[in-house]
């Protein structure tokens, strides 16, 4: 037997959700320690340093490059995985797919209403933060599920992934509509045209087939094309991460003659380790550096309280309640391998609002540094509370499934399921 090691072994390790999560958590922890240390000024100098071609509207800070640029790679991975689920997986059945979608929508509306109710008497500036508790952090949530839920049914991860991407997309739409001063139509149409080219190349026939047979590596075409799409979406005023989702959802998940794996599987295999080891930790490092005002300030500030109650309580009520009502009023059904106790734990897990919540926080309170810091502290506090509560519930469920001898299958590089 040949022992595998070196870069390949490291890449395989980085594809594990748990490892990705630990790196993300490590980046966030480092940011918090750094921002609250004697080297705070150095951290801020690095985070706010600007570079990039100004003529292309890309003279951005390091924090912006992490949130707008690097994070688009992560959203590509998520969109690509969701496409595989819709074509080959659990979500092929509309009766199964509709449940997490409706739950996600309810899990967006209820937290926003809770935040608005708490801050309704504080003026228009405070109310700007109503979109902050809407989004679930996919990377954190999936990582925590991987760590504490090794024996949980795979359908729960699919439910969480679908729900998280739907409400993150919803949050991005909210950003485009309510937090964007101006949307430029010309670059948006340009991005749409290049996405059509991207979709054509994914068909794998005609010119696309000729490209695959040529000596020119595919990345020579796809990388500049993806960068151009991202740049046009960013220039249009819409948050550029939606470009990553769009390209991920356009990936072809089937094979053509002469292909051993589909473009979707190949892209995931090659890009996932970079997303885990670079994209997410750097984003966390650049976004989570909050100077904590102290626990008394957090629990007394309406902005932070609205975010905490929105993410922790609002997500639970919205997701669990929305899913349950949907099964009663429509033909939608819960996967037979899941129970409502599982959905309760998953709904608590959805209260981890890190990535997009911090993005909306930055947009909500630009020019109001005190409110910005309080809101960021609220996001991080809510995420910690949601993590602890979800871990308790899911650990109970995990122990129950373990006693029943159930083990969540893993996917190998060849696409086959295996268990330990």
From TrEMBL:
It is found in: Cell inner membrane; Cell membrane. It holds the Pfam family Na_H_antiport_1. GO terms for molecular function: sodium:proton antiporter activity. Keywords: Antiport, Cell membrane, Ion transport, Membrane, Sodium, Sodium transport, Transmembrane, Transmembrane helix, Transport. The chain crosses the membrane at residues 21-40, 98-118, 130-148, 160-179, 185-201, 222-251, 271-292, 304-325, 345-365, 377-396. InterPro entries: Na/H_antiporter_dom_sf, NhaA. It is a multi-pass membrane protein. GO terms for cellular component: plasma membrane. GO terms for biological process: regulation of pH. It catalyses: Na(+)(in) + 2 H(+)(out) = Na(+)(out) + 2 H(+)(in). Belongs to the NhaA Na(+)/H(+) (TC 2.A.33) antiporter family. Na(+)/H(+) antiporter that extrudes sodium in exchange for external protons. This is Na(+)/H(+) antiporter NhaA. The gene is nhaA.
């Amino acid at each position: 037997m040949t022992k595998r090691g070196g870069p390949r072994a490291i890449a395989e390790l980085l594809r594990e959700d748990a490892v990705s999560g630990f790196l993300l958590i490590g980046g966030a922890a480092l940011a918090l320690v750094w921002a609250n240390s004697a080297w705070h000024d150095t951290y801020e100098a690095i985070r706010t340093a600007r570079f990039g071609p100004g003529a292309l509207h890309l003279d951005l800070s390091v924090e912006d490059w992490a949130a707008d640029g690097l994070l688009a790679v992560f959203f590509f991975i998520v969109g690509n995985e969701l496409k595989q689920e819709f074509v080959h997986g659990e979500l092929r059945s509309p009766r199964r797919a509709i449940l997490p979608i409706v739950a996600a929508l309810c899990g967006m509306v209820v937290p926003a209403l809770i935040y608005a109710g708490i801050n309704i008497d504080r003026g228009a500036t405070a109310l700007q933060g109503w979109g902050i508790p809407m989004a679930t952090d996919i990377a954190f949530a999936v990582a925590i599920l991987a760590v504490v839920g090794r024996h949980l049914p795979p359908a729960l991860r699919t439910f969480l992934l679908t729900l998280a991407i739907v409400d993150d997309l919803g949050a991005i739409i909210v950003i485009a509509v309510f937090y964007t001063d101006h949307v430029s139509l010309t670059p948006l149409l340009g991005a749409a045209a290049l996405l059509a080219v991207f979709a054509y190349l994914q068909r794998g026939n005609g010119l696309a087939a000729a490209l695959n047979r040529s000596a020119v590596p595919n990345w020579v075409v796809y990388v500049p094309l993806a960068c151009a799409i991202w740049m046009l979406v960013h220039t249009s005023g819409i948050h550029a991460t939606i470009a990553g989702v769009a390209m991920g959802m356009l990936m072809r998940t089937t094979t053509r003659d002469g292909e051993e794996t589909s473009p979707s599987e190949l892209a995931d295999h090659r890009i996932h380790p970079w997303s885990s080891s670079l994209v997410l930790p750097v984003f966390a490092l650049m976004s989570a550096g909050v100077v904590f005002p102290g626990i008394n300030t957090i629990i007394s500030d309406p902005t932070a309280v609205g975010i905490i109650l929105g993410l922790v309580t609002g997500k639970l009520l919205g997701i669990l309640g929305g899913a349950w009502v949907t099964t009663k009023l429509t033909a939608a059904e819960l996967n037979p391998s899941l129970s409502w106790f599982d959905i309760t734990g998953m709904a608590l897990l959805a209260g981890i609002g890190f990535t997009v919540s911090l993005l909306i926080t930055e947009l909500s309170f630009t020019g109001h540094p005190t409110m910005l810091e309080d809101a960021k502290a609220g996001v991080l506090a809510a995420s910690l509370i949601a993590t602890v509560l979800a871990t308790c519930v899911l650990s109970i469920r995990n122990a129950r499934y373990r006693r029943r001898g159930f083990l969540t299958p893993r996917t190998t590089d060849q696409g086959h399921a295996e268990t330990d």
